[in-house]
Structures are given as structure tokens and as C-alpha cells.
Write a structure and sequence with these properties.
heterodimer, A: 630 residues, 19 helices, globular, B: 357 residues, 5-stranded mixed beta sheet, 38% helix, elongated, oxidoreductase (chain B)
């Protein structure tokens, strides 16, 4: 129990148990971060194998079937199991601190969300060892996915269903947390941009994941029981899948990129030592992007044959998104304009982000031009476009934030020098890999090809692109080395690590105690940490309440058990179409475990526990020495 | 001074861009940057137009950003400097909302016009006084890793190599027989999907005879992931003038009733009739729906199985083990094992099938 945080060094078993049962948003943030890094590394390795295969024409390094598995798993893993958890990691670790909360609104659900995501991801990856991974692309278009032999697609459907439930739960949790758990004085229009983008992106999750869930469910019953939702020979329709998938899939891009925007909106003002320019228009642009994000899904389907009217409408709607996005870019530039720029590792990523993301954005507008998209669609041009957006926008944000928030998350620091080397290796590798792919697409190279013939003028650019991919891989290895080295760095043990912190999380003395704030802070304006510092407040925080007992949630193993139940049931569902006798019992046992855990949770009242004043004072003394948090 | 510098930067950037662009426009039989035909040319113009606007945006943003980045450095301003905490500016917000809107509106006009233009297939059903269709229509059926081209008005069907007349609109009905594919001739115009449940219609215009190209054909691609051999699902397009096209149609129509006989003294023909004829027709007259590609024009084609060099040796390799060449194809295992002599004879026979020689 964490109320006895003032304890001696714990054994390995106790630490493990603590992490398996924890409901602490900071620990879950760390778990999301490491799970995300693990899957990022796996998916990155898959990309590297594909680029090696495409380095020279007619290569036979990887077979056609395996290549399709790699491209499917690369896309699926990167979007669902790497970018999403990495961003959730920062949301969990930082958002409660930014709004002055002691935890999220539903700590139990927070843990459940993580374990569902993790076991779903694990399930999906077991496919490599159990008869083949999914091979119909991350979009898994219905005609091909129904045709696909083996269990690959079943792994995809069941794995994403479980991890998608986790994402949905986490999204709801953040919405409620941000709406209800803000400290006194933290009005909506004083919320930091990262909190705002987390709120909007969680709302997008709330509306975007149900269509995916429905689509996956249709696919599941089609494959398990022959339900024929998508089998056109039986009156089904495959285009329905495309719509369901993209009604989810397009907002998904904004679910990922909005928090990335939020992270940069935190980093840029700090290292420019200047208030974020146009805060209210930044908030407005975020909401507008979220709203428009739902209006444009069919631009992924211009060549499907929806007719010119639908194509024209979706083309114009898509172009409209460029306006709020452009507002954001100009606001960032105006933030550094007239500022005092200190080039740290997070800042160099932010500065690299702006031109890369703009380049990805403008090619997006080109693809929105429907008649031009007939040429660009499903060519290497689109591959270049979305990697500019995802790597240039989201991955740079994640790497930047690892450096930026490492002190808060671990009370340790990442090495700056190695960070700069990592940035340059990764950044140059990134442009080398993807810039030329625009031209490969224009020169007629379709995407998702496992090989190409030598006589089509694509050899040189593919070769250079593969060299770039190797550089990116080296960059990621350097980052991992940096993470490992950080264990040996001295603890930070102070407030405001970067010296120019603006939002509330920088007011907290490191290491952050498990209850975050011994007294709930009073937020007296925008950028509270900066405000208090300007007024000479050494504690960087004004308190809204006297020191008192703190109410905290209890740890629980139930979320893990519930997730394990679904994990077991998924194996039954997976093998059910094979006609094995044990499939139904396994489904029943698995679901039974989950339901029992849910009943236990419902019947057993859990009111949490109180940390008494004496314990708080003892904890503070243990963490910060005599005199406590001063 | 500043203005001169700005101009110089812009100029050098454009110069570099021009050199770079001219160095990588690709091959004229497959690149969208060397368009041959009305649709491809319109799309190319749209590309250049939108790229110009977008380059302008990137250049302006990059310039502002690099300027701010180099000018406002803490190393120059000193560690103690606290910049003015500006809240924002309504005027600026309006400016950078309105300018993009104007740029997008400019781009939206040709977008909408071209969208409707490319989708206009009314002429498909137009007939002359005798009730004959005035426009050429080709029904394209995409199948697991090959393409079937049916000319319904002419009553002929071919595969893997599309033959079309130049300088007139050719209309296409697109459909997939198994899983979704996408029909793309990059140098001639943008793609459209072959769906499994409905027919998609569009048109292309072929502006250049393919005679002078490296292989004498334009390259066509499947653009939608369709299984292991998606990357190998190529086809070729031979464009000829109207007279040559009519001649080709007549030659195709003349193959009516052509077949292979089991009793033939030619080992190749007999083996073909025994093992292959069930799926592969050798008469160009017919309709769509064959199990395997129609082979009537095989000798005139450019590739074996869409990707291999057009030689007897490749054909023998293909017949002896198609799975090794196109994984997941539907030909593997459909015929009993053939001896080396039989394979050689069948290859000779298939290579001899031609309507042009």
C-alpha cells in the first residue's frame, strides 16, 4: 500500500506487485511509456526489414507473404500500440500535475485501460509465433481480409478490439478528469495547451473508436460465424468497412497529432521564455481541427468511385483543415518571435518539427485535391506524406517530450549532448528516407509493394531511402542508450528543472510525492508557475487549502485479472472457426474470469484510504530532507 | 539590403528546386511527371499548380521561422533578458486565417472542375444513327494477379496487355473478380479502384503512340494491396493510331473458333489442350469471366506473367513453378505435372500465338 511510502528499499517481488496493481497515474504513465517504447522498437525494426528488402530491385531478402505481414504489423503497431501509448504515457504523467489534481478521476479504470491495451497488444504480437501475422494492411480492407487465409486477421480483429477498449476507457477517463478535477482557479481558459489537446483528443477517441469497434465486431462475426456483413457474394458490402474504418481512421490521426501539438505548445514557450502567442486562437484551432477531423474521412476513398459530388465536398472540407492548422504554425512562430530562444534538446526537436510538419501538411492539401489524388493515392507519395506528418509531427513530439519531461517522470535527466547527436542522426535520416519517396510516388511507384523491377527508374531513390532508414534506426538506438544512461545520473531534487517552466507541473518539488500536491494549489492566472516566479514566490505555488488528510485510491489487481480474462477468451474466439472442441469452454472461462472480477469490484466497496497529516509530513521529510517541501 | 538578400535566397532555392525536379521526373512509360494524354496532363498541371502554391507556403513559413530562430537567441540576448509577454494579436490571427482561405479557394476551383470532368462518362452510352456506340468502351476485370480486358462492342477479349487507340476518349468499366484491386496507368492518368461489388466507370485519353517507348508499351499497375503478389500485378498498355487499332480488332475477331486439339501431332498443342485449355482460351473472341488470362495474343506481348522477360525460357520457368514467381497465384496446382519436354513444347506453342505476326 502506497500510504507506507516512507519505507525501506523494496524487494523485486514487491516492486513488481506494486506495478501490477498500481492505480497511480504517474506509475501508469511510466508503464505506458515503456510499453510504447517496446512496441515502437518492434515496429521500427519491421520497417527496417522492409527498407532493406526495397534497397535494391528484385531483392529476395524477405518473401512476399512476410513482407505483407511486416507492413501490416508496422502500421498497426505504430499507430495503435506505439504512438497512442507513448502519448498516453505523457498524458497520464503530466495532465493531473498540470491541472493540480492528485490523480485521475477513475484511477481503477486508468489501470484497466493500460492492461487492456497491453494484453491486446501482446495478443496481436503472438500472431508472429502462432501461424502468421495479419497481412491485409493496417486498414485491413474487407475483401482482402476476408480472403486472407490463416488466423492473422483474427489476431488483428481480436487484438485491436481488446486494446481499443482500453484506449476508449482511458479517453473517457481523461475527459472526466480534465472537466472535474481541475484545481481551484484552473478555469478552462487557463488550462495549458497540452491539457486542452488531451481533452479534445480524448473526445475524439470517444466518438471515433465506436465505429472501429463496430467494424471490428462485424469482421469478427463474419470470420467466426460467416455473418456476411462484408461478403458481397452474400449481399454484404466491402465499402461499408472502408467507411467504418476511415470514420475512425481519420480522427485517429488527429487523436495522435493534437497531443503532439499540445506538447510542442508547452515546450516552445518555455525555451523561448515567452507566453504562448494567441492562446485563445490556439484553443479554438484545436477544437476546430477536432471537429473538422470527423468531416473528412472519405478523402481516403477518392478512388473508390463515390462520384464527383462526394469527392468535391470531401476535397473542400479537407482543405479547410489547413486553416486552423496554419493558425497553429504561425502562432508557434510568433511565440519564438521576439523571445529569448535557448536551444535545448526538446527545443531542437520543436524547431525541427515546424518545417517538417508544414511539409507534411502541404502535401496533405495536395492530396485533398481530389483529381490530383487519383494520381497520388496509394503511391509512394502518400507514404511520404503520412510519414512527414507522423514522424515529423508525432515522433518528434514524443522524443522532445521524453527529454523535456524526464526530470518530472523519473527525477533523472537525459544527456543533452547525446540528445543532440540523436536528433541530428534521426532528423537527417528521416528526411533522407521520406523526402525522395514523394518523387518515387510521382514516378509511378505504388505503395505496399514487396519488390520492384529494375527498369522503372526507381532504383537510386529507393537505395537512398533505405540508407536514411538505417540512420533513423541508429538514432533510436542512441535514444535507448540515453535512457539507460539516465539511470546513472544524479537525482534532480528541485523545482522547475528547465528554469523557465510556466505551467503548474514545474512548480512541484521533485521527486513528485505519490499524492502529487500536499495541499491543492490555487491557480491565480494563466501559466501559474511563471506567474508565481515573477512575483518572487520561492515555492512557485499558492495553496487553496491548509495541510490536511489526503484521500487516495487503493491499489488493485482486478484490472489485470479482467484483462487476462479477455485475453484468454480471445484465444477461444480465434480458434473457434477451426471447429476445435475446446474453443467454447475457453471463451466461457475467459469471459467468466472477467465477469467475476467485475462482480468482485462491484460488490466489494473500496473507499480508498486517507493519508494523515503526520504521514504527509513524514513523507515530505523522507523525500526532501528536514523541513519538508520548502 | 534585407530585401536583396531575401530575393537572392528565393531565387537560389527555386534554381536548386528546378535542377532537382528535372533530374527526377522518371521514365516516360511510367512516370506521372511525363504525362501522355488529357487526364494525365490535367493532373500534371494541377500538380504543378498546387506544388507552386505549397512551395510558396513552405518558403514563407521557413523564412519567418529561420529568421526568428537566428535572431532571437538567448546567447545574443543574454541570460537575464525577459522578453515582453505578448498575449496575441487579433489582426495577425485574421491575416493568417484569411490568406490560406484565399489560397485554398484558388486551388478549389480547378479541383471541383476537374473532379466533374474526369467523372463525366455520359458519352459512354451515346450511339450513332445505326445504334452503334460511338465511344470505345473496355471492361477491365482485375483478378488475383492478372488483368482481363473485354471490348464488349467488338466482341473480343484479351488479357495483360491493353490495346487502345490514341487521341480519343476510351471509357472503362472497372470491376474486381475476387478481392479489391486498383487500375492505374501512371503516365496516362490517375487510378480508379476495381471494387468487388460494383462497376466503376471512368475515362482516359491516350495522347501518344507507345511505339517509341523503351519496351513499346506504357506500364500499368495494381495500386491496391491485394495479396502476396500485389507488387507483381503489372499490365502493359499498347497505344496505336485508330487505323492500326481497327486492324488489330479485325485480327482478333478473325481468331473466332480458334482452339487447341488434344489430337494434334504437335506435342505443344496437344499438351496445351490437355492441361491448359480449361482455363486459357486461345481465341480472342469472347466475353469476360475466364479462369486464366486469354492467350490469343501471347506472342505479341511484352512480358511473361506480367513481370518476366518475354522469352521462352521465362515461360518455361513460369509453367514449371508459378508459385516461385508469383506467390499466391491461382494457377499453381491447377494442372498435372508436366515433363521437361512437354513444358518446352507448350512454351513453344504459347509463344507462337499471335495476331500481329
Amino acid at each position: 500500500m502506497s500510504s507506507v511510502a516512507v519505507s525501506k528499499k523494496k524487494g523485486f517481488g514487491a516492486v513488481l506487485w506494486d506495478y501490477l496493481t498500481t492505480v497511480d497515474h504517474k506509475k501508469l504513465g511510466v508503464m505506458y511509456l515503456f510499453a510504447g517504447v517496446l512496441f515502437f522498437a518492434i515496429a521500427g525494426f519491421e520497417a527496417l526489414l522492409m527498407r532493406i528488402q526495397l534497397m535494391v530491385p528484385n531483392n529476395d531478402f524477405i518473401s512476399a507473404g512476410l513482407f505483407n505481414e511486416l507492413l501490416t504489423m508496422h502500421g498497426t503497431t505504430m499507430l495503435f500500440l506505439a504512438a497512442t501509448p507513448l502519448l498516453f504515457g505523457f498524458m497520464n504523467a503530466i495532465v493531473p500535475l498540470q491541472i493540480g489534481a492528485r490523480d485521475v478521476a477513475f484511477p481503477f479504470l486508468n489501470s484497466l485501460g493500460f492492461w487492456l491495451f497491453f494484453l491486446g497488444a501482446l495478443f496481436l504480437h503472438l500472431s508472429f509465433f502462432m501461424g502468421g501475422a495479419p497481412d491485409a494492411g493496417w486498414t485491413s480492407y474487407a475483401s482482402l481480409s476476408l480472403y486472407s487465409p490463416g488466423h492473422g486477421i483474427d489476431f488483428y480483429v481480436l487484438g485491436l478490439q481488446i486494446s481499443g477498449a482500453g484506449t476508449l476507457i482511458s479517453g473517457i477517463n481523461f475527459i472526466v478528469t480534465i472537466i472535474t478535477m481541475r484545481a481551484p482557479g484552473m478555469t478552462f481558459m487557463r488550462m495549458p495547451l497540452f491539457t486542452w489537446t488531451t481533452l479534445i483528443s480524448s473526445s475524439l477517441i470517444l466518438f471515433a473508436f465506436p465505429p472501429l469497434t463496430v467494424g471490428l465486431f462485424f469482421m469478427l462475426v463474419d470470420r467466426m460465424f460467416g455473418a456476411n456483413f462484408f461478403d458481397h457474394t452474400m449481399g454484404g458490402n466491402t465499402i461499408i468497412w472502408e467507411h467504418l474504418f476511415w470514420i475512425f481512421g481519420h480522427p485517429e490521426v488527429y487523436i495522435l497529432v493534437l497531443p503532439a501539438f499540445g506538447l510542442f505548445s508547452e515546450i516552445i514557450p518555455v525555451f523561448a521564455r515567452k507566453r504562448l502567442f494567441g492562446y485563445s486562437s490556439m484553443v479554438f484551432a484545436t477544437i476546430l481541427i477536432g471537429f473538422l477531423g470527423f468531416m473528412v474521412w472519405a478523402h481516403h476513398m477518392f478512388t473508390v468511385g463515390m462520384g464527383p459530388t462526394a469527392n468535391a465536398i470531401f476535397a473542400i472540407a479537407t482543405m479547410a483543415i489547413a486553416v486552423p492548422t496554419g493558425m497553429k504554425v504561425f502562432n508557434w512562430i510568433l511565440t519564438i518571435w521576439g523571445g529569448s530562444i535557448k536551444v535545448t534538446v526538446p527545443m531542437i526537436y520543436a524547431l525541427g518539427f515546424i518545417p517538417s510538419f508544414v511539409a507534411g501538411g502541404v502535401t496533405g492539401v495536395m492530396m485533398a485535391t481530389a483529381p490530383l489524388d487519383y494520381q497520388l493515392h496509394d503511391s509512394y507519395f502518400i507514404v511520404a506524406h503520412f510519414h512527414y506528418v507522423i514522424v515529423g509531427g508525432i515522433v518528434t513530439a514524443i522524443f522532445a517530450s521524453m527529454h523535456y519531461y524526464w526530470p518530472i517522470m523519473f527525477n533523472r535527466t537525459l544527456n543533452e549532448k547525446l540528445g543532440f547527436v540523436t536528433f541530428w542522426v534521426f532528423f537527417i535520416g528521416f528526411h533522407l528516407t521520406f523526402f525522395l519517396q514523394h518523387f518515387l510516388g510521382l514516378m509511378g511507384m505504388p505503395r505496399r509493394v514487396f519488390t520492384f523491377q529494375a527498369d522503372q527508374g526507381w532504383d537510386l531513390f529507393n537505395y537512398i531511402s533505405s540508407i536514411g532508414a538505417i540512420m533513423m534506426a541508429i538514432g533510436v538506438v542512441l535514444l535507448v542508450i540515453n535512457v539507460l544512461l539516465s539511470v546513472k545520473t544524479p537525482p534532480v531534487n528541485r523545482r522547475d528543472y528547465w528554469g523557465d517552466g510556466r505551467s503548474l507541473e514545474w512548480s512541484i518539488q521533485l521527486p513528485v510525492p505519490f499524492y502529487n500536491f500536499k495541499q491543492t494549489p490555487l491557480v491565480r492566472g494563466f501559466d501559474p508557475c511563471w506567474l508565481e516566479k515573477q512575483e518572487g514566490n520561492k515555492e512557485m505555488m499558492t495553496y487553496a487549502e491548509p495541510l490536511g488528510d489526503i484521500h487516495m485510491p487503493n491499489n488493485s489487481i482486478l484490472p489485470l485479472i479482467m484483462s487476462i480474462g479477455l485475453f484468454i477468451a480471445a484465444f477461444g474466439a480465434l480458434y473457434h472457426p477451426d471447429g476445435v472442441s475446446w474453443s467454447v469452454p475457453v471463451i466461457v472461462i475467459g469471459l467468466g474470469i472477467t465477469v467475476l472480477a467485475m462482480i468482485t469490484r462491484s460488490v466489494k466497496d473500496d473507499h480508498g484510504f486517507h493519508v494523515h497529516v503526520e504521514e504527509v509530513i513524514a513523507t515530505e521529510e523522507h523525500l526532501y530532507g528536514k523541513g519538508g517541501n520548502k | 539590403m534585407m530585401k536583396g538578400l531575401k530575393k537572392w535566397r528565393l531565387f537560389s532555392l527555386l534554381a536548386v528546386l528546378t535542377v532537382f525536379l528535372s533530374a527526377c521526373t522518371g521514365e516516360d512509360y511510367i512516370s506521372t511527371l511525363k504525362p501522355a494524354g488529357e487526364v494525365g496532363e490535367d493532373q500534371y498541371d494541377l500538380l504543378i499548380f498546387s506544388i507552386s502554391i505549397m512551395t510558396l507556403v513552405v518558403v514563407v513559413v521557413s523564412f519567418l521561422y529561420l529568421y526568428a530562430f537566428t535572431k532571437f537567441r538567448r546567447s545574443k540576448l543574454g541570460d537575464k533578458h525577459i522578453p515582453k509577454q505578448v498575449e496575441g494579436s487579433h489582426t495577425l490571427e485574421v491575416i493568417w486565417a484569411v490568406i490560406p482561405i484565399i489560397l485554398l479557394l484558388i486551388l478549389a476551383v480547378p479541383t471541383i472542375l476537374s473532379t466533374y470532368k474526369f467523372a463525366d462518362v455520359k458519352a459512354m452510352d451515346e450511339v450513332d444513327e445505326e445504334g452503334n456506340k460511338t465511344a470505345l468502351t473496355v471492361n477491365v476485370t482485375a483478378k488475383l494477379y492478372w488483368w482481363e480486358f473485354e471490348y464488349p462492342e467488338q466482341g473480343i477479349v484479351t488479357a495483360q496487355e491493353l490495346v487502345v487507340p490514341t487521341n480519343e476518349k476510351v471509357y472503362f468499366n472497372l470491376k474486381a473478380a475476387d478481392v479489391k484491386h486498383s487500375f492505374w496507368i501512371p503516365a496516362v492518368g490517375g487510378k480508379m479502384d476495381n471494387n468487388v461489388e460494383n462497376v466503376n466507370k471512368f475515362w482516359l485519353e491516350f495522347g501518344k503512340e507507345s511505339e517509341g517507348l523503351k519496351d513499346g508499351v506504357f506500364y500499368g499497375k495494381c495500386a491496391e494491396l491485394c495479396g502476396p503478389s500485389h507488387a507483381l500485378m503489372d499490365f502493359k498498355v499498347k497505344t496505336v493510331d485508330r487505323a492500326a487499332f481497327d486492324q488489330w480488332v479485325a485480327a482478333m475477331q478473325a481468331t473466332e473458333g480458334q482452339t487447341a486439339s488434344v489430337d494434334s501431332t504437335d506435342l505443344g498443342e496437344a499438351t496445351f489442350a490437355q492441361s491448359c485449355l480449361g482455363c486459357h482460351a486461345v481465341s480472342g473472341v469472347g466475353t469476360t469471366g475466364a479462369m486464366g488470362p486469354n492467350l490469343t495474343t501471347f506472342g505479341d506481348r511484352n512480358r511473361v506473367a506480367g513481370v518476366l522477360e518475354h522469352s521462352k525460357e521465362s515461360l518455361e520457368n513460369w509453367i514449371s513453378d508459378p508459385e516461385a514467381i508469383k506467390p499466391g497465384n491461382l494457377m499453381t496446382g491447377k494442372y498435372s505435372e508436366l515433363s521437361p519436354e512437354e513444358i518446352s513444347a507448350v512454351a513453344d506453342y504459347i509463344m507462337s500465338l499471335s495476331v500481329e505476326k
